[in-house]
Specification:
The complex is a heterodimer of chains A (252) and B (208). By secondary structure, chain A is an alpha/beta fold. Chain A contains ten helices and eleven strands. Chain A has a single domain, classed as Aldolase class I (TIM Barrel, Alpha-Beta Barrel), CATH 3.20.20.70. In chain A, 38% of the residues lie in helices and 24% in strands. An eight-stranded parallel barrel of chain A has the order 1-3-4-5-6-9-10-11, surrounded by eight helices. The longest helix of chain A has 17 residues. In chain B, the strands form three sheets. In chain B, strands 2-1-3-4-14-13-12-9 form an eight-stranded mixed beta sheet, sandwiched between helices. Chain B has a four-stranded mixed beta sheet with strand order 6-5-7-11, with helices on one face. Chain B has one domain: Class I glutamine amidotransferase (GATase) domain (Rossmann fold, 3-Layer(aba) Sandwich). Chain B has six helices and 14 strands. In chain B, 50% of the residues are buried. With 208 residues, chain B is of the alpha/beta class. The longest helix of chain B is centred in the C-terminal third of the chain and has 17 residues. The chains are: A alpha/beta (252), B alpha/beta (208). At the A-B interface, helix 2 of A face helix 1, strand 8, strand 10 and helix 6 of B. Chain A: InterPro entries: Aldolase_TIM (IPR013785), His_biosynth (IPR006062), HisF (IPR004651), IGPS_HisA/HisF (IPR050064), RibuloseP-bd_barrel (IPR011060).
């Protein structure tokens, strides 16, 4: 049986992991390679690296980071942030990433999803969606530019469109729940998971191991992503997985 | 020496990095004359079956691979590389494969016997069930490996299915036919067990 995946997310800025400060055991908590190895050992099923560099130089550095991580890591990893063209995808995937994640660029130009899927196959193309509940819409609305800009897209319509265009996976972040540590947005996750045929990664709101269980059972997510609770050692991948096992959720 | 076939469809980087970590000598080539020097071949691949066969045929790599195997040398196909070992695939209309292992390649229907839909691609970690003993499984216990695929092998010859994984159907995960091996999952992305599987293949090649 396919297991539910636990995915730590690392923010990388100018080639350095930010927020990775709590790992006293590491020689260098900002080193993406060391942190990746740490999470691999902890039992992470995949990793996501989000490039939050603002500068062109920072993005160039990301390619080196990807190469270094790919050289040492024996689990899959996804790279997102600032991927705007097929050329960007080629650079990152050829450097050794397994998947790229598209967000704003896919909304601005949905053809980009198809271009990537045609070239590399759908399994390489993740579409990341930032969703916020919209009372006037009576549904969730898609936001871009790191959540700063509202779009005309309803989330359900957008994920269907993205999958039709070749997305192989949806990384779904609830802006309402993000950072609150009160749990994933189960209604949103379930609605998206039931409307597409590809795997859905729940993101935003993880505060405890129990939240992961809900995401998989009630939320019907295939994978769940978290950042700070792992980085700040509020829980660990190991703890989450042993809790899930007790509850009968199949994990590796 | 290991030769990795570069025909433009590969995740060559991760496979070659895995071999580097295992400290194995290897080279990457698309030239049959070069690849002939390899004791063991790895055929990686991601993408469409038909495109892959066209590219292999264009460089006469299909001829080379069949000759390599007929000479008793080892071949390991990974992911699409494993599917290419079979007779044909229904991906984008029927396309002929290398026919080194009997069987064909079909798409997951996405609908189970109770008419419920399930996710395609089969993406993530799934547990191997060992069906037959094989030098590839030496020293290993059943464990989880990483799969990403929408098509799977179907064969009536159960003895070639060394290991399988349960999805909606039993997915052939490791196939063996004499000196020809295939892994549907990505050993290079399957943490410790993946590295051990590669190591076992490399030991076979070395011991030849």
């Amino acid at each position: 049986m396919l297991t539910k995946r636990i995915i730590p997310c690392l923010d990388v800025k100018e080639g350095r992991v930010v927020k990775g400060v709590q790992f006293v055991s590491l020689r260098d908590a900002g080193d993406p390679v060391e942190l990746a190895a740490f999470y691999d050992k902890e039992g992470a099923d995949e990793l996501v690296f989000l490039d939050i560099s603002a500068s062109h130089e920072g993005r160039e550095t990301m390619v080196d980071v990807v190469k270094a991580v790919a050289g040492s890591l024996a689990i899959p990893f996804t790279v997102g942030g600032g991927i705007n063209s097929l050329e960007d995808m080629k650079q990152i995937l050829r450097a050794g990433a397994d998947k790229v994640s598209l967000n704003t660029s896919a909304v601005l130009r949905p053809e980009l999803i198809t271009e990537g899927a045609d070239y590399f196959g759908s399994q390489c193309i993740v579409v990341a969606v930032d969703a916020r509940w919209d009372e006037s819409l009576g549904s969730w609305r898609v936001y871009t530019h790191g959540g700063r800009r509202a779009t005309d897209w309803d989330v359900i319509a957008w994920v269907k469109e993205a999958v039709n265009r070749g997305a192989g996976e949806i990384l779904l972040t609830s802006m309402d729940n993000d950072g609150e540590k009160q749990g994933f947005n189960l209604a949103l996750t379930k609605a998206v998971s039931e409307s597409v045929s590809v795997p859905v990664i729940a993101s935003g709101g993880a505060g405890s191991a129990a939240h992961f269980e809900e995401a998989f059972t009630t939320g019907k997510a295939d994978a769940a992503l978290a950042a700070s609770i792992f980085h700040y050692k509020e829980t660990s991948v190991k703890e989450v997985k042993s809790f899930l096992k007790q509850k009968g959720v199949v994990v590796r | 020496m290991i030769g990795i076939v570069d025909y433009g469809m590969g995740n060559l980087f991760s496979v070659s990095k895995a071999l580097e970590r295992l400290d194995v000598e290897f080279f990457i080539s698309d030239d049959p004359a070069e690849l002939e020097k390899a004791e063991g071949i790895i055929l990686p691949g991601v993408g469409s079956f038909r495109d892959a066969m066209i590219l292999l045929e264009r460089k006469e790599l299909d001829v080379f691979l069949k000759k390599h195997v007929a000479n008793g040398r080892y071949l390991l196909g990974i992911c699409l590389g494993m599917q290419l070992l079979f007779e044909e695939s229904e991906e984008n209309g029927p396309a002929k494969g290398l026919s080194l292992i009997p069987g064909r390649v079909a798409r997951f229907s996405g609908i189970d016997s109770k008419n419920n839909s399930y996710k395609v691609p089969h993406m993530g970690w799934n547990k191997l069930t060992f069906n037959h003993s094989s030098p590839l499984l030496k020293g290993l216990e059943e464990d989880y490996v990483y799969f990403v695929h929408s098509y799977f092998a179907v064969t009536n010859e159960t003895e070639v299915v060394t290991a399988s994984a349960k999805y909606d159907v039993d997915v052939p995960a490791i196939v063996t036919k004499e000196n020809v091996f295939g892994m549907q999952f990505h050993p290079e992305k399957s943490s410790a067990i993946g590295m051990s599987l590669l190591k076992n293949y490399l030991s076979l090649v070395k011991g030849r």
